[in-house]
Each structure stands twice: as structure tokens, then as C-alpha cells.
Amino acid sequence: MKLEKIVTRSENFADWYTSVIQAARLIDYASIKGTMIFQPNGWAIWQNIVHELDRRFATKGILNVQLPLFIKYSEFTKEKEHVEGFAPELFLVTQQGDKKLEEPYVVRPTSEVAFCNYYKKIVNSYNELPLKYNQWCNVFRVEKNTRPFLRNCEFFWQELHTVHSTSEDAIQTTKEMIQLYKDFVNYFLCIPVLMGEKTEGERFAGANNTYTIEALMQDGQALQCGTSHYLGQNFSKTFDIKFQSKENLYEYVHQTSAGLSTRIIGAIIMSHADDKGLVLPIGVAPIQVAILPVFADKDPKVMETANDLYKQLHTKYRVKIDTTNNGFGYKIAEQEVNGTPISLVLGPKDIQNNSITLIRRDNGEKINVNLNDIVKTIDEQCHSYQIAIYKKAEIRLNDAIVEVKTIEEFNTAIQNRKIIKAAWGGSPSDEKALKEQTGASPRCIVDKADNQVCFFTKKPAHDIVYFARAY
Length: 471
Fold this sequence. Notes:
The protein is built from 14 helices and 23 strands. The protein has helices spanning about 15-25, 40-60, 75, 80-85, 110-120, 165-190, 235-240, 265-270, 300-315, 330-340, 350, 375-400, 405-415, 430-440, and strands spanning about 25-30, 35-40, 65, 70, 90-95, 100-105, 130-140, 155-165, 195, 210-215, 220-230, 240-245, 250, 255-260, 290-295, 320, 340-345, 355-360, 365-370, 400-405, 420-425, 440-450, 465-470. The protein has a seven-stranded mixed beta sheet with strand order 3-7-8-14-11-10-9, with helices on both faces. Strands 16-15-17-18-19 form a five-stranded mixed beta sheet, sandwiched between helices. A four-stranded mixed beta sheet has the order 20-21-23-22. A hairpin with a 5-residue loop joins strand 10 and strand 11 (about 220-230).
């Protein structure tokens, strides 16, 4: 048996990315362009993300619901700004059985409209607010150029939709959610990010404000990893969602939405993986500890010890014993491709010495461990592993940031695959012009500009912004 060849990053980064996905058996391509078959390894990564986010959501009083896949087109077009943002990406259902529908259905590209219809039915009094409902679902958007996890016609995500009695409470929730995403991506996925507000031209259609976290991939491009939107009363006024206030007046609710999608798996790959395959953070790895018995046919104590190790570890870690007859080299290479954080190699000589060889995926370090200390040692190594892969990505991010004051400096930095920090005083049309000229876009606002001039428009700057080429 052979593992699929992985293209090196230096050969072709895009081909490296897809070859890692194929070699690790994360997804397979479906018959309809832009759709994916999640294989067990890929789906396990996503489910581990789901479980951890659900745990964090529960601390914020967020409850899970499930809404329909279809939305009436007439309902979708009620929010003009919203439909303008999504009209080019819509899938429509026009037929039911052998009959043409009087009105087409939109296959949800997002669920603001569905949630608005639901909230209109159930919101009554200020005593019931806020409501914070989340759904895990698949959504559909037309994409001409598709890439696994990054751009798909069908992808999976969570979308949170909340309603509040005051704008202050809604804005606070918007900021809490982006901070929650940042903490999750930093500490669970070991990916450093830039966090801030989106510029006017980059905001979610229909939002008063959008907050984002942006990560740097190994090829120097940015990837948006999660967003949180303050929607104000834009949707509640359109869909007539009112509550009775303390003063017995009927007022429009204030809304937010937030989301993180399977795109984050692409971020994990492009942040941590190497030319041997995946390098997975401990929390998302389908198998966290692989036990690799060798020469087990020569000594029955090898499998006995492997099973004993499993019993010690499986209540705390996701553990698998490789019971195949594959050679030692293949077993090691398979764990490298799959990104298994810790591999334990156990043979007859190890049994005699009451030891085992621990191999870390991130740096390939081999550590001889006394079997009596195995649980403690794995705990220590997992902690060190998480810190190490975060630190490696953090150094890459910090080294990539440069400050510029002119368009010439900007062009040079972009060609060198940098993230640019600069004073900005442009409009949405200026953002568009900059992207057409350089391929770069504003990723997020991080501060207010103080007596500075915009590098692009030469007008007084109002914000300090990070720019980059992005996926």
C-alpha cells in the first residue's frame, strides 16, 4: 500500500494544499462542481470544532435550533441591501415535482431572512430578550472558482442570530462573539489572528458594522476565519420584529449575527501543515495518540502492552492502536500525513526496557519514555506541542507585518507577500480601485488615524488598517 504523493510548498503552494487534503483523505470531490464529500478524517475534524464551539456558546447562553433550507424569494427580496449582496450567489428552486412553483424558493445562502420570520412570531416582551439562537447547517452559494474548504458551492457553518431590546446590548454581543472566535482560534486551533472592524466596503450586506478575525497563511495571503455583525434595526424594520418595552411601547428589536465555517479547516491546513502532511492541533485531531506496535508477531507482550496503554489513555485522549500488518515506515508516514500529534512506537526491545518511543508530529522529536510515566509525559508533550505550533505561526505573522506610507512601498510589500499596516482615508470605491491595482484588500481596521495622510488617496486618514491579498 502506498500513500499519495504530496507536492512540496516550494513547488506549488496551491497544489501542495490540495495534495495534503487528498493524501490525508479529508474530502473527495462530488459529481456537482463545488460540492464535497467529507470523508471520516475531514468530518471528524469538523465535528471536533462543532463540539468545542458549542461548549463555548453554552457559556454565553446560546441555544441551538434548526431552520428550513428553503426561503421564499419574495421574503428574501424584502431586504434590498441584503439581496444585492447575495443575488449573484443564489440557487433557486423553480419546480416542485412536475409542477412549476408560482414563486421560486431560495436555497439558503445565509439565514437572516429565515431567522427574522421566526423571531417575528416568537418575540413579544422585553422580559424575553435577549434571544440568542444558533444553527449548524449547510448553505449554498454559486462559486465560479472553487477550492476545497475555501470556496465551495455548498459548505457547512454555524450561524448565530440574536435579538436584543437595546443597541448597547446588541453591540456588546457582537464584540463578545468576535472575541470568542479569537480565543477559540488562538487557543484551540493555535492560529494567531488580527482582529478588528471591517471597512465600509467589506462589511456584510445589511450590517451596520462587521468585526473580523484574519489569519496569515504560509503563502503570505490572509484568510478571514470568523465574523460578527451588528445588524442594528435594518432587518427588524423590514420584517416588523417588535417587542413591548417596559414603558408598554412597541419598539423594533436590535439584531446581530455571527458565523464560522468549514473554511476554518483550510486555515488549519495552511497555517500548520508541512511537506509531509497535516500538523493538527490537539483538540481537532481525529486521533490524538497513535499506538504503533512493531514486531508484535515476535512477542505477544507487545500487543498486551499496547492494549494496556490504550486503557490508560483512552479516557482522556482519542487513541488508536494500529493493528495492521503494514511496515513500520508506512505506519509512521501515515500518522505524519494524517497530522496525528503524538505517535507511540512499541516493540519487543521497548518491552524489555519498560519504555516506549514518543514521536511528536510538529517537530519530529523522538523521546524515550518510561512506561510508568507515559500519561504524565503525554500531558506535558501535548501542552508543549500546542504552544510550539502557535508560536511558529505567530512568528510568521509578526514577521510579515510592515508599515507603509506610500503606494510605492505598498506595491513592494504586497509583492513580498506581506501584511501591510497603513493609514487609510478612502471610500468603498477607493477600496475597489486599490484591489484592481494591487490585488490587495483591507482586512480590518485596528485603530483610528491621528493626523495622518492616506497612502492611496492622499486625503486625511480616518483609520489604521491592515491590508493583504486574501483568499
